[in-house]
Amino acid sequence: MKHGKCNLNHSNLHRTNDPAEKLMSTRCVTERQPKYLSGLATLLATFLVLFIGGCSNSSDVQPVSGTVTLDGQPLAGVMVRFTPQTGEKRTTSLGKTDEQGRYELRYTSQQQGALIGIHKVQVVNIDGLPEPGMPKAQKVPKQYDVQSELTAEVTPSENIFNFELTSKK
């Protein structure tokens, strides 16, 4: 049987007393090993990159919650939007306020939170009819909506942001 540069007869390999043939069989096995180990090492390296890469992405996103009030009253049925101002990733996180003005941001449909870093924050009126059981959304002043200058910095520690909005400029 031929193995690369080797000519081996496996049926006679263990029966031979010829030192040259035994040396050749050892060398052939040694020559084949790196190819096998190389494939295994590549597979292992790929797995580690994917596993570690997946884990590191989730650590860039931290839970974010808080409350929104307008003139001291809970602001229900509005969208809180955090848009990253730095970094390559610019995925906006969103959260809708409940009847007490509380919100929790979602980064994706599967993951809560927002990316670590500085964000522009907008409190946005939601057009359309309110969901059943929710009060009609109150009008958000433009200085918090389209012309918002609100910012928040999401950190690796606790991220609770309460926004006390006023209808006066």
Automatic annotation (TrEMBL):
Keyword Membrane: yes
Transmembrane segments: 36-54
Gene3D superfamilies for this protein: Immunoglobulins (2.60.40.10)
Domain of life: Bacteria
Keywords: Membrane, Transmembrane, Transmembrane helix
InterPro entries linked: Ig-like_fold, Invasin/intimin_cell_adhesion
This protein's record includes keyword Transmembrane helix: yes
Protein name: Carboxypeptidase regulatory-like domain-containing protein
Source species of the chain: Blastopirellula marina
Source organism phylogeny: Bacteria, Pseudomonadati, Planctomycetota, Planctomycetia, Pirellulales
